[in-house]
Amino acid sequence: MNPLLRVTGLTKSYGPVEVLKGIDFKVAAGEKIALIGPSGSGKSTCLRCLNFLEKPSAGEIHLDGERIGVRLGRPMNDRQLAPQRAEMGMVFQLFNLWPHLSVTENVAIAARKVRGLSAREARELALDMLAKVHMTHRAAASPQELSGGQQQRVAIARALAQKPKLMLFDEPTSALDPELVHEVLKVMEELAAEGRTMLIVTHEIAFARDIADRVLFLDGGRIVEGGPARELILSPREPRTQAFLRQIRH
Amino acid sequence: MTELSTFILILEGLLAGAGVTVVVTLVSLLLSVSLGFVLALVRQFGKRRALHALIDLYCEIMRNIPALTHLFILYFGLASIGFRLSSIAAAILGLGLIGGAVTCDLFRAGFAALPKGQAEAALAVGFTPFQTILDILTPQAMRIALPSLGNYAVQLLKDTSIVSAIAAPEIMFYARSMVTSSFQTTLIYTTVALLYLALALPLMQAIRILENRYGRLKA
Amino acid sequence: MNRFIQPYVDNAGEWLPLLLEAMGKTALLSICAFALSLVFGLLLAVCRNTRWRWLERGVALYVATVRGVPLLAILFLLYFGLPGAGVTFDAFTAAVLALALAFAAQVAELFRAGLMAIPAGQREAALAVGFTPYQSFTLIVLPQVVRISIAPLIVTFVSLLKDSSLASLITVDELALTGRAMATEYFLPLQIYVAVGLCYFLIAWPFSLLSKRLAPPAAR
């Protein structure tokens, strides 16, 4: 079976600094993958390269058989990239909700302007998505009035409204107060149970263990080790993985 | 006569007014900043409501009426009831009084930007409220206000050109009297622009240095 | 005090129509100049963020020059100076142009500050949901810039309104010039210039109040 996402030889340099040194992995439809690793390991950069928010220096990314960011051998600009990005939902560490729009509008606007839904259809879709993240009661609120956990749930709804083939989560709970982490993880758990394809950069090791099918451990811009979640986290083979997990537990 | 020698003649003529321009700028800047600082202190830390209202009224009057009108009131208006000010004195007083309102706002913004903890910490270690304001809060507020004060100084330098309208003998005044006796209007006013620019550039450069050094404190 | 007030009572019938008409002229001058400076300013701000280095440099140079040159010099150069170079404007046009050119630089700086105040994540999130760069700018970035800039823009308008008084020095018959003419005719400069000041205040103050109401709480 063809994988939904195929990443081969992905590298990324900023000037002389090589942040990603050749990343290869595949994601099958419906698979949940957690990317873990110490800060500076390149896991966020890797995720941001997938929808070309960072332009990779080399390597190929294919989503559903289609090459991302390159057409007929030439790099695509942001305008050409737009429809490809719409296929991937992205959830940011700092939520990045748009403060001048209401919660509902944040979720509905892309459906209207990118996919051409009518205002009414987009609104209904938005309310459906907000129900999924248990935020219907704040549909009319402004993002600034919400707690961090609530904002992140709305951001998840915004990404879901794209009807994406793949969801990208970039440390979705890192900016949250500890007591707000749980509500976001719970929503993500529910999405996982629906069989969505999810790629999650996270520091929540227990969450990764319980929810992911596979875990990839990144360090120094490479995948050091990858495997079934439970196995990798409970009995890592590589010394660097062992050291990292030991540190995290204490 | 070649263009160049005309230019030099014009420049010489204008430089006769440069001294007055600089003096009016500096003295009214001094007046502005002192007045503005006192107003800001009273408005920010004073307890008298009536005084606050009075300062607010003063600032609104200064802020919402053109400098030209203020100068005419001071120079022509007061003279008509017997208070005769020299044109330079009226210029300095007018620009200084307006500037007091402007800098009052800048200082207040500086004080307002300080976290509450700064005053609390000072009081906690045993400073009196007066010491707290003067020794702890003021130096920080000054730093925050410095870049915008610099911008104001540039604005003030440019605004001194207005006082030519009450015949204060600064650069623009000489330019205008030169124009009536020659046909070189384009060259004269271009030279005027260049001369002000030459005076403003060092000031602007100083502001940029200050901004780079203190800009981070702004947030 | 009575001696100060009495002339107003005696001359109200003659002064009021004159001042009202002049206020209209001042308002017209200010509005035309401000509208033009918004257009120029937005253009300058956009040019300052392009790929073309020389255009960026040119705009930066323009902004720096206008910051360092008095409005009065620009005004005289346009009105008295350009005829020497073969270009002639009527006084009103020259005043509108001079005000617009000078304030465009300020407007451009405001827009630029507004643009820089929008976190990069805002645009990233817009691109991530599939917006084109144009959509990201018009739907997500620009509305926020406008919201941030509106209060300082109103303050800028009040400055422009006040500076429009300089047009009196090139014979535009607005409020300040009307005041001068009245002062010589009635020989009551104090009363008349105070009245002129009040007229400016009446136009400018509502805008000053509005700008304070619209400013974000932190800046209040």
From TrEMBL, chain A:
One of its GO terms (cellular component) is plasma membrane. InterPro entries: AAA+_ATPase, ABC_ATPase_HisP-typ, ABC_transporter-like_ATP-bd, ABC_transporter-like_CS, MetN_ABC_transporter-like, P-loop_NTPase. One of its GO terms (molecular function) is ATP binding. It is found in: Cell membrane. It is a peripheral membrane protein. Its main location: membrane. Keywords: Amino-acid transport, ATP-binding, Cell membrane, Membrane, Nucleotide-binding, Transport. Residues 5-245 form the ABC transporter domain. Pfam families: ABC_tran. Belongs to the ABC transporter superfamily. This is Arginine ABC transporter ATP-binding protein. The lineage of its organism: Bacteria, Pseudomonadati, Pseudomonadota, Alphaproteobacteria, Hyphomicrobiales.
From TrEMBL, chain B:
GO terms for molecular function: transmembrane transporter activity. It is a multi-pass membrane protein. InterPro entries: AA_ABC_transptr_permease_3TM, ArtM/GltK/GlnP/TcyL/YhdX-like, MetI-like, MetI-like_sf. The chain crosses the membrane at residues 20-42, 72-98, 187-210. It is found in: Cell inner membrane; Cell membrane. GO terms for cellular component: ATP-binding cassette (ABC) transporter complex. Residues 18-205 form the ABC transmembrane type-1 domain. The keyword Transmembrane helix applies. Keywords: Amino-acid transport, Cell membrane, Membrane, Transmembrane, Transmembrane helix, Transport. The keyword S-adenosyl-L-methionine does not apply. GO terms for biological process: amino acid transport. Belongs to the binding-protein-dependent transport system permease family. HisMQ subfamily. This is ABC transporter permease. It comes from Ensifer adhaerens.
Automatic annotation (TrEMBL), chain C:
The keyword Membrane applies. The chain crosses the membrane at residues 27-47, 59-80, 92-115, 136-161, 190-210. GO terms for cellular component: ATP-binding cassette (ABC) transporter complex. It is found in: Cell inner membrane; Cell membrane. Its main location: membrane. Keywords: Amino-acid transport, Cell membrane, Membrane, Transmembrane, Transmembrane helix, Transport. It is a multi-pass membrane protein. Residues 23-211 form the ABC transmembrane type-1 domain. GO terms for biological process: amino acid transport. GO terms for molecular function: transmembrane transporter activity. PANTHER family: L-CYSTINE TRANSPORT SYSTEM PERMEASE PROTEIN TCYL, MEMBRANE COMPONENT OF AMINO ACID ABC TRANSPORTER. Belongs to the binding-protein-dependent transport system permease family. HisMQ subfamily. This is ABC transporter permease. It comes from Ensifer adhaerens. The lineage of its organism: Bacteria, Pseudomonadati, Pseudomonadota, Alphaproteobacteria, Hyphomicrobiales.
